[in-house]
Structures
1.
Amino acid sequence: MTTLLYDSSFDGLLTSVFEVFEYKYKDVEIVSRERFHQENIFAEIHKVITQTEKAERVLHKLEQNIGKQGINELLKVYLSEDPEMEQLILSAIRQSVKHPDENILQNYADDAILKISKICKSVNRERHRMTAFVRFEKMQDGVFFAKIDPDFNVLPLIRKHFKDRYQDQKWMIYDLRRHYGILYDLETCDFFYPDEKIDLHQYHQKFHDEEKRYQTLWQRYFTRTNIVERKNLKLHIQHVPRRYWKYLTEKW
């Protein structure tokens, strides 16, 4: 068994896949350095240095074999943070190289491909819910701030949605679990990685007075328009699971 250790980045993962073929590894596993715990003392360790050129060569080959849509699905598997995601992606790429004229991502008889399909559906569902349930709060400096805590790392998948929808105001979305975010300043829309975790208590103290009034008005509106006799909590939870309530002003 050979263990390839990479830096957790998508380019690093693709570089690892390239080197699996380059060095003709057969019995191999790809593991990020931050999750590596050597259990097999006889395993050979191969430390991968991320190389953009190698990653791009893998992407180019994949685009020929499974198209941009197929690459997008493998990216979603990567963003799912599933413990098996490296092996699933490696398996799919191996199959695409072996069967370049087939759409291997539709071969659901294969266990790895079937799991990739299920993961993509889950990630898509989480992405949709994040676009639906994110709530922005206006800060004293005029920036609109939103916090999220998704099950999957969907921030890269929702960036375009919010950039296209809110082009006329400054905003930022911060992932509480992964400690990074997106910042839009009316010109650029980039990821940011704070050195320390954002102190949400300090942010709440920086709310714009106008924001506090809007929150109060919305909570009152929600309460007064709620028809108690027609309340169906079971159906409500099906459409808006409890874990998303923390984003909704009307639930505070």
2.
Amino acid sequence: MAEHAPSMDAVPGAAPTTAPVALPDAPADAADGLAPDAVDAARPRRSDATRAAILAAARDRFAADGYERATIRAIARDAAIDPSMVMRYYGNKAGLFAAASEIEVHAPDLTHYPRDEAGARLVRHFVERWECDETLTAMMRVGVTNEAGAERMRGVFAEQIKPVLAAVCPVPGEAPTRAALIASQILGMALCRYVLHIPPAVDLSRDELIAWLAPTVQRYLTAEHP
């Protein structure tokens, strides 16, 4: 028969005759069901996914409520996470808005193309960006609903678009005016096509859209006079 260690209750006051068996600590990542090496790789992916969810929820909430009325709590609820996670990654609402509205348009250097192709190149670039980058569409919605978003969009054009236009503009001093006119075409079509979904604008193919817009943008870029 197998021998059993006597119970503490068998002899009152007696010390146990065998030391309790020490169980090895469970791996810290056991709850995840992952080996340590796999966890090291998974953590950055989870962090990236969390940040992406927060930023997506923030853009939608800022667009719907405006900067002043949007709250960290509402954004966290939309992202299905705890509000403390939003604070952990972005500090406060101002920091979150700055991250959510960060845009890099990667405007092409128009000096690398024939002068008479500049308008078509610029329009094609922006149409392709609108169709593959949801951040631009989200910030368009934010820009038309609150001043903070509008100011961010103005900053993007001032910092990233005007220098590109100035390089091909026949009258460099007119670059700000010409940039505003070009914005009226590119942002105006983006609003109609990607935000308001006006049927004729939505139904145009990419090439048709570029063919209609490019001549006007070309004139704004390179015409000597209005």
3.
Amino acid sequence: MGQAVDVLDAGSLLAAFGALGVAVVLFAETGLLVGFFLPGDSLLFTAGLLCAPGAGGAVHLALPQVLLAAAAGTLAGSQTGYWLGRRGGRALLARSRARKLHEGAARAEEYLARYGHAKAIVLARFVPIVRTVLNPLAGALHVPARTFTLWQITGGLLWTLGLTLAGYALGSSVPNVDRYLLPLVALVVAVSLTPIALEVLRARRRPATSDPEEQHP
């Protein structure tokens, strides 16, 4: 009768579940390692877009409901991930065979070492996969619970409210913006993947820049 829901397509998720879908997806993406592939960035932006008065598509969402669902899902998910990490430690990651998940764990650990707890927890919100892995990793590394909670709330609200309101602002200013939904979502996904691409490029350049120093002490 109904069409199957595509969990990788933000529009499909929102059409099927509305604001509740936002909460569930963000909880899974930030709290459960199996949710690392879910489209958090594009989901938030699309949800904001579909709240705008100028969006004339079949799906229309209420902005207060979306904001509340997004904040609740991501904050509860991150805290759950942290406590799972405290209880299960690195064994949680060791059980997974997903290469991207292990690469994300390496980047998350690098973030914590390079930026310190507060900055790393906030920055990780804006990097796909890293935002999934950093929460249990912070628990496994025994980042103080109070520190983690304070900064995951800060980062979570910046991420969810920022992307949702950005989508809403664009939808309010551009008539019939839903016609351009696919290219807009593609742009959001591309921007969200930029930090990963920069990390990969930097990692590839590292050996080339370090060799001369090793040859000439």
4.
Amino acid sequence: MKNKSKKWDTVDILSHSRHDWMNKLQLIKGNLSLQKYDRVHDFIEEVIIEAQQESKLCNLKMPSFASYLMTFNWSNHHFVLEYEILGNVLSLEPFDDSVTQWSKSFLDQLDKAVDFASENHLSITIDIGLEAEGVRFFFDFNGIIKDTEQLIEWLKAVNHSQLIVNEFHVNTYELTTVISLGI
């Protein structure tokens, strides 16, 4: 595992990406040799969906945020992150820095607050709704949170001109929060 503060250069990214693709191809090859064709089909579908989501994330024109999410699981964290983009993709370029900074800070707080020995999982859903609804970011954590008070205090205190924390819920086993862009 890489250090959390590592700055990824192009060679590091390409090397790690190639390693991930080789692992996926090995899984397909292994399942083919075991004649588990249904599993091969399912796995290929998972890879296609993952690639489509990665493409949608990149098409948001938020390069810092996209890079952060796509490389997050390559570093040493106490939870696994996945993401999904819903709706029609549009450019969110003006919000790249603020969303990236908020997300990094929030995920750092979460990383400190969770039980290190538990299976922890964070799902980020970016919902590009209708114009009246705007763009919303849903953060949904499942696992064990040791320090709920620290997270609650951070969520109450956070203030950013471009982002609005609409709601949040925190207990020992889950956390949900919704932020929207101050458009």
